[in-house]
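Handout, page 2. Input:
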Amino acid sequence: MFRLEEVLQLKDGEEIRMVVKRHAVTLIPKLLGALLLLAGPFFFLFPLFRTGPTGMVVFAIMVGTGTFIAWRSFVMWDGDVFIVSTHRIVKVLQTGIFSRVVTEAGVENIRDVAWMKKGIFGVVWNYGSVLMNIIGIPQPIIASFVPQPKQVHALVTDMMDMAKKRGLSGAGQERVTKADRVKRLLDDLNEDELRTLERKLAREERHQTVDRLFNTHSGEKTVSEHSSQERAPADEYGLSIKKITTASLKEIDE
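Output:
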């Protein structure tokens, strides 16, 4: 039997909103085949047993095969699960009796989601597929043969909206937290430390202004090689002025 804790460990504040399996109608074809293998030998029970050991072996093989097919079909159906939580979606694909593939994505990474019904059986029995395109994953995550695909689609959409709201509130809270931290740090400084900080900020601003001024001057492109040669002395002159200005600023700061 499928156990949720084997594929999903809930995070803080995470809640399971839906656990859905393939529609039970998808079990019918394989169970019918298994039923034929189980019931068939009993119709020929006496003829088989009259043949001796060979008939009994055939009887046992058919019954065993039918039982195995029925059990395997149930295990495969029970293991195919689509899970929707407040933080993510999880698709569990049972590829064998002892093997499965688990794919998950955060609801904030879902680009878009769609649902569809296909065929007369899907319409009559109300099952279909839900397709989710995920950011960073080339292939969509598809939950196939799920009952009431419209409701599943609506739930996934609601979780996407909740994730967007959490993201906006989280970003705002982060900004407020950083501002509070800066304010607390400034409140802890005494007057001398505040004046020192102001001088350092003013000095840094002056240096950045000088750097921008002379970087802009030296970064201008020339139109031709001749004009470049004419501007070379001017560039050297500008660099000299920059050195003098920087030295003067250092003296003022000191």
